[in-house]
Design a protein that fits this description.
By secondary structure, this protein is of the alpha+beta class. The chain is 31% helix and 14% strand. The strands form two sheets. The protein has a three-stranded antiparallel sheet with strand order 2-1-3. Strands 4-5 form a two-stranded parallel sheet. Helix 5 links the parallel strand 4 and strand 5. The protein is elongated, with a radius of gyration of 23 Å. The two termini are 15 Å apart.
Amino acid sequence: MKVLDLQCAQLHSFEGWFASEDDFQSQLGRNLVQCPLCNDTEIVKMPSAPRLNFGGHVAPSVTLEDSDAAGPATHPTPAESSSTEMVVSRGGGGSPEQQALFLKALRHVVANTEDVGDRFAHQARAMHYGEAAPRSIRGQTTQREAIELLEEGIEVMPLPMPAALKETLQ
């Protein structure tokens, strides 16, 4: 079994498991390897450093006195350590931790909303004007319809939804 570090053209990093290098190359050549975030099939293999556990190695311990020598800037304030800032930008894949947080948030949305598909604008208006029971929904609409909904005072938000979130990942 080969575990490879992979990256798509949008710089999203992910891991792929393959029976062999030939299996990976075969699947890559047939566009079967896709980014789980954006479904991009332009995938490259990234360098990886395997972790070899020889045992007996003890990680160095750092005492408070050691870290104080570096100065106060090395100690985050409680406010800094308890808050998390996430920035998602186009063209940047973000760190693996940011990607994981983003996917976790999207999974929460999928689990806690009803998919109304291309009836999104109609359903949102019906709820806004009291013609349908209010509930959390998601779906597709055109950019123009989304702007019209916002102008009517209906709160909507665009959300990139990778197809991988709608399926069970193996």
